[in-house]
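Field log, afternoon session.

UNIT: design team B
ACTIVITY: writing a sequence onto a fixed backbone
BACKBONE:
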């Protein structure tokens, strides 16, 4: 044993002494490889230059010494090399902050791939948002759709820095497609877009359906965002119709009761205007807009409860996608009143199987309060309703214990599918009861 301990001690000593040396050696080896790749950026063969740039991108932050050569390569005569250079700079990340002006210049490249790659790379530099956002705003009407989408995505990722640029686009740009992109980007900024609520709400009244749809989606993302903003609302209605004058205040992630109260007020103010607006456009003539509004209410969740009557009204919409979205929204809002449950049970007979499934899933989310209504549905003359009622009781599990008698009766149902669904439901409910009775160790 003593001999073994000596051997272990020697090994530990060797490891502790040699490890730093090994680490230094490995680091130097990587840097040597990076220097070789940097030298290859001067190669006359464009394919060799491209491969060198792509290889540098794989080193990530370790390739900091390559930043200046990569910035120079953004002016390469070959498109693929320029695009690879932009991507590599993005891979290095915030250590390459000095490259931001060069990447912004690449947004004006004649090639769409280079513009797209540069826009993507700029998302890695949020602290430079005040420089990046105006340049990306100009790409919202780029002739290439992929570039427009990437610019909108990056603007959304930049957060609060993008909001003034996007508000200005909604106010002044004449192209409807730019409005759609700006609204998508505002949704990506989340709660930061509360400053743009007047513009987003105004977009709901636009004659173009794509704009109204984009506005509904944006409202859902803004109102459902639970992250902590870096700003708070200051009441100054002369500055903004909704009274939001953003001023930077708290360092994240520090939180105090006062800051929590400020954020709660901000979120409540957003909900106060968002839910009624989304409710009103549920009668929009275009089904895509109605569906978008329902998905937005669904993402907001329980705070959308005032919209329940409007959602119930469209669960019988002529469009199946709208009906499915309505059924899903009722489950996510979690309002378990009799009117809600009846409307969801009614959807069990919908001609569209996806609508029926959405209704079943929503009732499952409502849990125990839904069980009495499901028991009643087990007596429905329509076999489809009885099957879905039994399946939903199965999904509810232990909370559906009071349904055991009616499910037992259903074992003698005339319809085979009902009998099978009742069998599965009884098995699951009984198993969950037995599992809950097992004492934990």
């Amino acid at each position: 044993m003593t001999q073994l301990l000596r051997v272990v001690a020697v090994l530990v000593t060797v490891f502790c002494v040699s490890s730093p040396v090994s680490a230094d050696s490995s680091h130097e080896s990587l840097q040597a490889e990076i220097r070789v790749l940097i030298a290859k950026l001067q190669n006359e063969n464009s394919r060799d230059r491209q491969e060198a740039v792509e290889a540098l991108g794989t080193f990530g932050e370790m390739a900091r010494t390559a930043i200046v050569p990569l910035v120079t390569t953004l002016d390469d005569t070959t498109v693929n090399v320029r695009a690879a250079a932009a991507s590599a700079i993005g891979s290095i990340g915030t250590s390459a902050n000095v490259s931001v002006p060069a990447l912004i210049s690449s947004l004006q490249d004649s090639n769409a791939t280079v513009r797209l790659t540069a826009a993507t790379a700029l998302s890695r530099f949020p602290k430079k948002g005040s420089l990046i956002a105006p340049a990306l705003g100009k790409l919202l009407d780029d002739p290439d759709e992929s570039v427009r989408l990437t610019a909108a995505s990056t603007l959304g990722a930049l957060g609060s820095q993008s909001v003034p640029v996007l508000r200005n686009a909604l106010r002044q740009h004449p192209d409807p497609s730019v409005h759609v992109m700006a609204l998508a980007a505002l949704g990506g900024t989340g709660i930061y877009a509360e400053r743009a609520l007047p513009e987003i709400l105004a977009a709901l009244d636009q004659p173009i359906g794509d704009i109204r749809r984009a506005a509904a989606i944006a409202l859902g993302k803004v109102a459902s965002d639970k992250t902590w903003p870096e700003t708070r609302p200051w009441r100054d209605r002369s500055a903004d119709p909704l009274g939001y004058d953003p001023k930077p205040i708290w360092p994240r992630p520090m939180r105090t009761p006062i800051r929590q109260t400020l954020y709660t007020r901000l979120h409540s103010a957003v909900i106060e205007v968002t839910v009624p607006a989304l409710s009103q456009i549920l009668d929009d003539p275009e089904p895509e807009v109605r569906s978008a509004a329902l998905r937005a209410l669904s993402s907001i969740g329980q705070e959308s409860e005032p919209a329940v009557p409007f959602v119930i009204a469209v669960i019988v919409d002529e469009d199946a996608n709208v009906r499915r979205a309505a059924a899903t929204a009722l489950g996510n809002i979690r309002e378990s009143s009799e009117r809600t449950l009846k409307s969801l049970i009614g959807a069990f007979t919908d001609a569209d199987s996806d609508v029926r499934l959405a209704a079943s899933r929503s009732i499952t989310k409502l849990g125990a309060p839904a069980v009495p209504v499901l028991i009643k549905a087990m007596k429905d003359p329509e076999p489809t309703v009885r099957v879905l009622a039994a399946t939903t009781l199965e999904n509810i599990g232990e909370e559906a214990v009071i349904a055991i008698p009616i499910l037992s009766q259903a074992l003698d149902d005339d319809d085979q599918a009902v009998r099978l669904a009742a069998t599965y439901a009884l098995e699951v409910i009984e198993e969950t009861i037995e599992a809950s009775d097992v004492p934990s160790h």
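LOG NOTE: Confidence is low (pLDDT under 50) at residues 1-18, 231-254.
NEXT ACTIVITY: expression trials, pending approval
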